[in-house]
Amino acid sequence: MDGRRMRFETTTGKRRAPRRIRLARTVLFLIVVAAVICVAIWGCGAVGKLIEENASDETANEDIVEDEDAAASPNEEGNDSAPSSASEEAQPDPYARFSALYYYEEERLDRYLQYEAAHPELAPEEVVWRVDVDIDKPFYEDVIEIAASDADSEQTLVNKHFKFSDDFEPAELVQVDGDYRVTPGTKEAYERLRDDAKAAGISIRAASAYRSIDYQVGLYARYLNEDPDNADNYSARPGFSEHHTGRTIDLVGPSGTLRGFVGTKEADWVRENAWNYGFIVRYTVENEDVTGYESEPWHITYIGKEAAALMRVEGIGSLEEYVAKYVRHTPPPLSPQ
Ligand SMILES: [Zn+2]
The whole model's pTM is what? Predict the structure, then answer.
């Protein structure tokens, strides 16, 4: 038997832990107490810190919002305040005069530059829409055939760069002013124009309308035979004539001839009022360089009331310009002032 155990038992009458163990228990107790205190303090600190962090997050969010506001302002005002590091690195676009236009096409940049160099009299706005519809190319070179899906559209561009396929015919033609043929929409609009003109004391009638490609073959051959140097200035080659669309009418007044229409009150009335019925005078003195035709005040083309009104309001001088700006591209919505 252990002698020390015997001694404890005799002193207390019951078992008592040795002193070393009691000391260890005390130390353990103190450690636990200290740990509880630490946890309590840390907990409070953590909660406090959490609150602080949340508060600072909200402040940061406010800062971000303010930063966004601050970032937005210079852009709206042309970004002429102190530049950020990003804008210090950004180089100004040397072609901004082109690329700022909504009808700019990046892949045509070389052609814009070439056309601009060849036509220093033209503003960049003019250069871009012209190149967009191939006006920079020589007439009858690199001709593009009009897609079948576009061929019957009211704003189909047919000119010395865009031609119909040899078998194209309008979907439907109806008679007007005798044996002349046009599309149904053209007939309806033309008859209102003609009747309103008559009510205003203006006498006009159709002298030519739809022409088939076969018919144009003979007509062009005749002009070319009679006047080989100038035929292209007033007669379209087969497939390139607007008369194939069924939306074009040549008008005559009391003289009964096309040339006799020039400079008459009938020509004046048509020029001022045709847009109201969805027609445009297709070849004017002002757009001769774009169309490649001498002016023809008798040749009107139905493009729809909306398009004709827009051309009138916007001062758009040719169907080529209209197609570049409103058919091939879509203008951005007007921003509220
Ligand atoms: Zn004509």
Answer: 0.72
